[in-house]
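INTERNAL AUDIT FORM
Audit reference: QA-55
Scope: verify that the stored structure record matches its stored sequence.
Auditor: D.O.
Record contents follow.
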Amino acid sequence: MYSSAVAATSGQTTAYGNRLFVYEVVGLSQNTDNDSVDYPIRRSGSVFITVPYARMNQEMRRITRMGGRIVSITPLDAETPLKPTSSRSSGAEVAQPPQSNQKEEKRKPMTQAKTKVPVNIYKPKNPYIGKCVENYPLVAEGGSGIVQHLTFDISGGDLHYLEGQSIGIIPPGTDDNGKPHKLRLYSIASTRHGDKLDDKTVSLCVRQLEYQHPETNETVYGVCSTHLCHLDVGADVSITGPVGKEMLLPEDEDANIVMLATGTGIAPFRAFLWRMFFEQHEDYKFKGKAWLIFGVPYTANILYKDKLEEIQTNYPDNFELTYAISREQKNSEGGRMYIQHRVAEQAEKLWTMLQDPKTHLYMCGLKGMEGGIEEGLSPFAAQQGVEWSDFVKGLKKQHRWHVEVY
């Protein structure tokens, strides 16, 4: 962390001393003189570097020594790039900060650059009040349950997030004790730029919770999920967060991403896949292999089915899609086909992928998934002379094992 006591090289003591700026740099080359820098250097394309105002000139000189060229400089909390101007003393290009009375944007556009993961920007005591702009069903005719895709307008505040994070929703009203309802967490189903690619929305994939009361046998509906699934377009919604660092995508564009999902556990993986294949944002071009193994009860319950299969058709070398449809498909023993059976079928292929240090495995869905994956892969690991629990510990230590279950 940079010390705020370091004076700006210009000698000015303005509000900009505590500001952060993002440099877009091209032409960098890695060598023994700069291997210690604390940001990734790609072989080609742009690199985005976050720099405090007090170190701007110093970082520019370092970039020049590394053969780089700054093509734009943007305040981290604004969208208008600053124009570099020549500096005779350093030989680098130096940004001129905007005038102190210039109106500053609240929104923080999220890039793939290494930035602090946003957490708890809005808390339960002071939630962000967004508006529902979309609410449409995801389950086709013949499927079970109610699952909705919801999109909320967040343009009026500073709520920003990354793929793999969650937001909290506070349903209106009070509980049986007369106290306000507690928030419920939902995995975000949109990329950091939102479904409309304008940094102004966040989306969720929500299933209406429904179960039989163990004593009365009455049908009980979840408070928050029912509220969301039947929310009118234009209605307000109380949002907290974002939270979560466990399910974030690796920054390496060549990474292999194995995703295991059941039901609405598809939400974070929708965000991953939309960023990889539909968004093709200028600061992130996915070049690795993505594999989704998706467990559902019926074909009609394959959420986002058309889009998933569109990706499979258009990117056959980079995306593989495998379904486990429990009420329609049979496993090798003649029983229902669950996700662990697909994992067992593909054990050798999955095992081989996991030997690659660029492979990350993600799980999202119902509790018990992790045990099912162990059931599917541990016998194959044992054939290789490897104890499954030790292997998982190694993956966790390498930050390549990511689990979110509920």
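Auditor finding: record pair retrieved intact. The longest strand covers residues 128-137.
Action required: none
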